């Protein structure tokens, strides 16, 4: 009778799983219809021209940044039904060049679990998502987190693994156990996961597997000694120019002067790593990777020897002025990473040049002179950085203002949104003579020099941009209006 009983059980499980798949397909169709019908009601005044944003609703962390079948794929935390955080889905876009993006159907919908952050890898012809299943419970802290898989053979339609969860608990039982980042080395898959100690110190855990379904805990890759926050989210681990980089988003770091002024931070530790001992030896302590107001949960991927980064272009526990328009959140432009003198350099990818539509201005801008631009523009500033530089950027029809300042005697670049809402950092301008600024309808990205200092800040002007040269010198400007590269 045992074989008959096993056959009955197999048939029952298969029937239940088939029913769940059918329900999931139907739910996805209903969601896509909702999104399509909702788009027409979105107010476009702050919608980006060349940054990834949700078609409707809420966006936060980038997920599953990867390359599959000749295209880049980027997923993101998504709540379509309101412009505030809600039960997490995975939104999805793809691109041939990291500049022109196409909106794809929502990849993951919540069932018993909310679909928190994770990553994507290619295994033969399959694209595999590994993500955190966030489950609400009736006991404190009223949630638990485990790791799930989903599979696709076309990069668009995903089926959740019937054997989920594949990693049911952190070694110490912490309910905070999220944001898996997977990669392959040799014959093994490796994954790091953000977590915390029992006494609330952030840490990153390292596992390995031969099939991505059964995982072996290896070690604590790194953890806070008490001064680096209570939780480390969204970890990433990769080799860059001969060193290993642990990129993560700590929560709970106390502000120290100019540093750590955002709600939560995003930065990296440089070190060495041994795949035999699994030991990560830290050589350069934690540094912030971006110094602006709005940058979190950055994720990277490597293609053809180049390491690319995209980040959530927003921040927790701050106003999101676009939320009244039916959407909230966007991504930064893609940056290419290099490691130079113990510091990550971020520069806009070369492909951004294809967005240059027409020359807005080339030439000298005198002291107190004003120049007007459309909503999407790239501005290259040439100046004598042995003297003070100050630029005021504001909306042609009102809205927000922001000031960019450099004082060689102080040695700091400042991004000032007014009302004492400033971010600033030291910069060595000895060999640099330029700033490169990317403006979109509600954002500013400032790359100083070769990208050794970068600021990403949301700013909300109305009716395009106006630049006023408040410097005590004339400056040279080469500016280009940029084409739209995102469809909604």
UniProtKB/TrEMBL annotation:
GO cellular component: cytoplasm
Reaction it catalyzes: Hydrolysis of terminal non-reducing beta-D-fructofuranoside residues in beta-D-fructofuranosides
Molecular function as annotated in GO: beta-fructofuranosidase activity
Signal sequence region: 1-18
Record-annotated Glycosyl hydrolase family 32 N-terminal domain positions: 51-348
Pfam name, any one: Glyco_hydro_32N
Biological processes annotated in GO: carbohydrate metabolic process
Keywords, ordered alphabetically: Glycosidase, Hydrolase, Signal
Domain Glycosyl hydrolase family 32 C-terminal as annotated: residue spans: 372-468
Listed EC numbers: 3.2.1.26
Record family assignment: Belongs to the glycosyl hydrolase 32 family.
NCBIfam families linked to this entry: scrB_fam
Protein name: Sucrose-6-phosphate hydrolase
Organism: Parnassius apollo (Apollo butterfly)
């Amino acid at each position: 009778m045992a074989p008959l009983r096993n056959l009955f059980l197999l048939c029952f499980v298969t029937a239940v799983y088939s029913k769940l798949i059918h329900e999931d397909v139907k739910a996805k169709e209903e969601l896509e219809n909702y999104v399509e019908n909702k788009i027409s009601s979105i107010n476009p005044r702050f919608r980006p021209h060349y940054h990834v944003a949700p078609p409707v609703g809420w966006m936060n962390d980038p997920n599953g940044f990867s390359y599959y079948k000749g295209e880049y794929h980027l997923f993101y935390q998504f709540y379509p039904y309101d412009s505030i955080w809600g039960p997490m889905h995975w939104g999805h876009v793809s691109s041939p060049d990291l500049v022109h993006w196409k909106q794809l159907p929502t990849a993951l919908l919540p069932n018993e679990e909310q679909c928190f952050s994770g990553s994507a890898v290619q295994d033969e012809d399959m694209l595999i998502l590994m993500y955190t299943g966030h489950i609400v419970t009736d006991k404190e802290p009223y949630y638990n987190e485990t790791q799930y898989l989903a599979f696709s053979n076309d990069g668009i339609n995903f089926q959740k693994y019937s054997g989920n969860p594949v990693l049911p608990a952190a070694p110490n039982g912490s309910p905070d156990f999220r944001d898996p980042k997977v990669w392959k080395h040799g014959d093994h898959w490796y994954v790091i996961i953000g977590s915390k100690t029992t006494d609330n110190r952030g840490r990153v855990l390292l596992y390995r597997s031969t099939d991505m379904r059964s995982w072996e805990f290896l070690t604590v890759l790194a953890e806070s000694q008490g001064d680096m926050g209570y939780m480390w989210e969204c970890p990433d681990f990769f080799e860059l120019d001969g060193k290993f980089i642990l990129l993560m988003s700590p929560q709970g770091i106390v502000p120290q002067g100019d540093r750590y002024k955002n709600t939560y931070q995003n930065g990296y530790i440089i070190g060495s790593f041994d795949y035999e001992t699994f030991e990560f030896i830290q050589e350069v302590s934690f540094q912030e990777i971006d110094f602006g107001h709005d940058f979190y949960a950055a994720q990277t991927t490597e293609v053809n020897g180049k390491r690319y980064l995209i980040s959530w272009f927003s921040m927790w526990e701050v106003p999101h002025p676009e939320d009244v328009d039916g959407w909230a959140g966007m991504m930064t432009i893609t940056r290419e990473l290099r490691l130079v003198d113990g510091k990550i350099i971020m520069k806009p990818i070369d492909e951004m040049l294809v967005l240059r539509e027409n020359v807005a201005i080339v030439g000298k801008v005198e002291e107190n002179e004003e120049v007007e631009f459309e909503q999407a523009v790239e501005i290259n500033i040439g100046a004598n950085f042995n003297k003070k530089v100050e630029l005021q950027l504001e909306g042609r029809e009102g809205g927000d203002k922001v000031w960019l300042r450099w004082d060689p005697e102080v040695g700091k670049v400042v991004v000032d949104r007014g009302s004492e809402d400033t971010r600033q950092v030291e910069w060595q301008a000895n060999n640099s003579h330029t700033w490169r600024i990317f403006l979109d309808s509600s954002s500013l990205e400032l790359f100083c020099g070769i990208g050794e200092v970068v600021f990403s800040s949301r700013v909300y002007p109305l009716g395009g941009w106006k630049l006023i040269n408040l410097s005590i010198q004339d400056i040279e400007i080469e500016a280009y209006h940029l084409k739209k590269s995102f469809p909604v």
